Amino acid sequence: MSRAKDLAKKNSLRIKRKKRVRGNIFGTAELPRVSFFKSNKYISAQAINDVEGKTLAAVSSQTMNLNVNKENAGKVAAEFAGTLKTAGIDTVVFDRNGYLYHGVVAAFADALRDNGIKL
């Protein structure tokens, strides 16, 4: 297979996982959904109230001038936890967005827990 076909297959499998995960979770004002996204350069997350379709809090490693690795995921999660606490949110539902729960995704979730956010 060519590289383009491999990447297309990898992305289509992630989209399938994303749809399967999103079918089971839903964010409200009291219990928002934290949607995690990672690219090859940056990671970002946002707390979403799906009832109103509004973003309650957001963070991106791009604004912090950090690239993607486990250590930086912890730094971004610590910043996000502070933003969530400022908004009065201490419990969330984690949406891994179709990514497998290991590496950067797991480091981000663990750092959120370590900073006092219940997942």
TrEMBL record:
InterPro entries: Ribosomal_L18, Ribosomal_uL18_bac-type, Ribosomal_uL18_bac/plant/anim. Pfam families: Ribosomal_L18p. It comes from the Bacteria. GO terms for molecular function: 5S rRNA binding; structural constituent of ribosome. One of its GO terms (cellular component) is cytosolic large ribosomal subunit. Keywords: Ribonucleoprotein, Ribosomal protein, RNA-binding, rRNA-binding. CDD domains: Ribosomal_L18_L5e. One of its GO terms (biological process) is translation. Part of the 50S ribosomal subunit; part of the 5S rRNA/L5/L18/L25 subcomplex. Contacts the 5S and 23S rRNAs. This is one of the proteins that bind and probably mediate the attachment of the 5S RNA into the large ribosomal subunit, where it forms part of the central protuberance. HAMAP family: Ribosomal_uL18_B. Belongs to the universal ribosomal protein uL18 family. This is Large ribosomal subunit protein uL18. It comes from Poseidonibacter parvus.
